[in-house]
Amino acid sequence: MKNSQLLKSLIVVSSLWCLAIEPVLANDGKQERINSQLEALAKPSIRAADLLAQDANPTAVKITGVKLNPTSTGLEVILETATGAILKPVNRNEGNTLIADIDNAVLALPEQSEFKAENPAAGVSAVTVTQLLDGQTARVTVVGSEALPIVTVKGSEATTAQQPVQPELEEGEEEIVATGEQETGYRVRNSTTGTKTDTPLRDIPQSIQVIPKEVLQDRAIIRIGDAVQNVSGVNYLGGYQGFSERFSVRGFQNFFNIFRDGIRVDGYTSYLETTDLERIEVLKGPASVLFGDAEPGGIINLVSKLPLRDPFYRAEATFGSYSTYQGSLDLSGPLNSNKSALYRFNGYYENSGSFRDFVEAERLFLAPKLKFALGEKTFLTLDLTWTNETRTPDDGIPAIGNRPANLPRNRFLGEPFQNIKSNVFSAGYLLEHQFNDRWSINNIFRAQLVNLERYFPLFDSLDETTGELGRLRYFSERQDNAFSSQTNLIGKFSTGKIKHKLLLGFEYTKITEDGTFGDFEPYDSINIFNPTYDGSEYPKKASETFFRDDSVDKYGFYIQDQIEILPNLKLLAGGRFDIFRQTRTEQDLGQPKLEFKQTDNRFSPRFGIVYQPIDAVSLYASYTTSFAPSFGTSRNGNLSPFKPETGRQFEVGVKADLLKNLSATLAVYDLRKQNIVVDDPNSADPNDSIQVGEQASQGIEFDLAGEILPGWKIIASYGYTNAFISKDTTGFEGQQKDNVPKHTASLWSSYEIQKGSLRGLGFGLGVFFVGDRFGDLDNSYVLPGYVRTDAALFYKRDNWRVGLNVRNLFGQRYFTGSDGGRLSITVGEPITVIGSIGVEF
Asked: Cα–Cα distance between 325 and 180 in angstroms, integer?
């Protein structure tokens, strides 16, 4: 019945799509133009020499001149073109800088490669117009001397007249201008996560949701888990043992599916930082075609801030409940007079307590970044991050019966002495070179060095009648190193009238893990109803009895083509071949070392189509795949290795611009994870297994983000997720997946007064709903649903910002998630107040 309901939904969406396409194709006013375009496709040149020689985009608008026209409110930037073509800037703000990108535009100034002007108008210190590396995008940058300038960017036909000549618009067309006032908001138009190229979201046949830094600031967010609550289909499950974050995307946990600037990061050893982030991008569904081995639910990509050409300085101090103190710095600007060397530095310090007894944390994060122009078309960016953290691990509370135990929210069931220490260092570079206006190449490298020490008693068993919780001594040390390199060649060319954006890439990652573990001997139990803390520390290194040494090599070769058949019909096709080699060793103290070797190969394809019946609407459909090799020491009874788990997804959806700065996405999907290891029902040996298990997730998602009116911003979502065991031999078939609510919804909206004596005063209100979900795969207990309300009050004046945020305004008791069993459930925070004061200069 459930599958038939989803099938009906898919049929309805597909039928509506076909109905939308038919009248457009039959439109008498455009049929001849379409026929002529199709005729031009008949004999395209496909010789390599021709592809390299031809113009990558013969329809690109050539900008031949730049004029600046001061106005009573700000500045007009007039871009002259030979034909007076319509220019459609896509703009954003960075501090007091307005950046407007014009796609399908080539800078063709007669006597210079770029345009620069100093102090052209009151309140404006600099204007530059440059060509981006892709050779297809022109960028206008306007820097305010003290605040964000009010700027209009538009095109005109080349003329000697002082006033611009406006071209006539075709019926249904509207000129889009970029102003510093209008682009503040929650909407992001472009993303690199879905294609590894800068592509409009409306042209990508997959659901991608973006959380910009404005949302992080307005909600006073410092954790990734809090941020993703604004995205449909993504659930925050709480901290793993209180020191790292766990998520599920479309019903599948994504512990190791977190990336920073396209390279996988270690999300297991500590909380991930948001201080140096420009935005967070969530790609839903299988993503192995570009990112290699991954769970099928999706990935989270953290996009870091880049160095700025003009000085920017920001400092913020935060004070909150439970003795929480935080401070951050964001500094950027040029290192020399010609701005060929830029820098950016982000720093963060936290010293905090918790609503949980004995739980506290201290954290320091530093992130310097340098960018150098090695030539007119070559750039090198150096990137370092360092995190040092000491935190109290917290396994939460257990379940009793069919609900979480009825305990006070502050009840801690560990020991006051326990701690986790992590030291994470990352160093890397991005080297970019543009051969010409059609072809470019980039190489990314990052080394990540992780040292982690964990020291605390583990929960072992619970007597639900007496409340006695058995515990085990636990100590471990890990040294994890990862070295990753990517090389991407990007080319734009045409075969006849068909446009291509081609991506060829290679990725190599080397991972080494060296871990030692304690003896797991019994530790004193604790009564959850009447705890008495033992406080006796046990030896650390002297208790080590188990050792593991692992080495993993990953090789990935991928190709992708973004094909524009017609201006409103686009295809996306790609594939990746991965080679995954593991060498893992295990040794118990005094026993021989065991070595396991395993090699897996896998090809992961992806296909998608986007049709835009009108400029503001994109209809799309896609097929995507994923794979994840089994752990090298996981073997069958005959010691044979298991094949990789695989995933596949069918998705259809609609993306629409509802208003000028407000967009929405509606997606329907069917997602399957296959090759799951289950017991062999036909074997008498309990160690024999077969790979016939399957987990399914079917759902509908809606996301809305942007600006309704000037100053009124909104980000909202709704997700229906039916995640269940579709094939199994051990009695779980038909069971719901743990930690996956069927219904979730979120709404965050803020309004800032734009005029008058109260200008700069703002308010924010958020409501987050999570439905009932099972805490384990046995479906033996339920984590009850909840509605949490957040609120904010802030005031901006000149370069100052003061804010007050309240989370869980009404003190709702709730639980974010479990570890998949009955002993560890994460407790949600009670009412929490956060005050902040920041200054930019």
From this structure: 33
Q: Bridge partners of 481?
A: 449, 512
Q: Higher model confidence: residue 124 or residue 804?
A: 804
Contacts of 596 (CB under 8 A, 6+ apart): 582, 583, 584, 585, 586, 632, 633, 635, 641
Q: Report the 10 Å Cβ neighbour count for 758.
A: 11
Beta strands in 710-772 (DSSP E): 712-727, 743-752, 761-770
Query: What is the C-alpha to C-alpha distance for residues 823 and 471, in angstroms, rounded to an integer?
Result: 11
Count of other CB atoms within 10 angstroms of residue 396: 27
Beta bridge partners of 502: 491, 561
With tokens 């990137």, the residue in question is: 383
* 602: enclosing H helix or E strand: strand 594-614
Taking only the tens place, the pLDDT of each residue in 177-232 is 444 333 447 988 889 999 999 899 999 999 999 999 999 999 999 888 899 999 99
Closest among 99, 155, 429, 107 to 278, alpha carbons compared? 99
Instruction: State pLDDT tens for residues 783-803.
Output: 999 999 999 999 999 899 999
610, 583, 617: which is closest to 597 by C-alpha?
Answer: 583
Block residue for tokens 């400029």: 615
Of 93, 95, 128, 90, which Cα lies nearest the Cα of 109? 128
**Closest by alpha carbon to 233, among 551, 823, 696, 698?**
698
Is 341 buried (19+), middle (13-18) or exposed (0-12) by CB count in 10 A?
A: middle
Given a contact cutoff of 8 angstroms between Cβ atoms, the answer to whether 619 and 22 are in contact is no
Cα separation, 497 vs 44, in Å, equals 8
CA-to-CA distance for 706 and 714, rounded, in angstroms?
6
Beta bridge partner(s), residue 765: 749, 791
738 Ramachandran zone, left/alpha/beta (phi>0; psi -120 to 50): beta
Helix (H/G/I), strand (E/B), else coil: 437: coil
Rounded to an integer, what distance in angstroms lies between the CA atom of residue 180 and that of residue 152? 8
Q: What SS3 state is found at 166? A: coil
Chain centroid to Cα 621, Å, comes to 21
Q: What is the DSSP string of 723-742?
A: EEEEE-SSS-TTPBPTT--S
Q: Which residues contact 72 (CB under 8 A, 6 or more apart)?
A: none
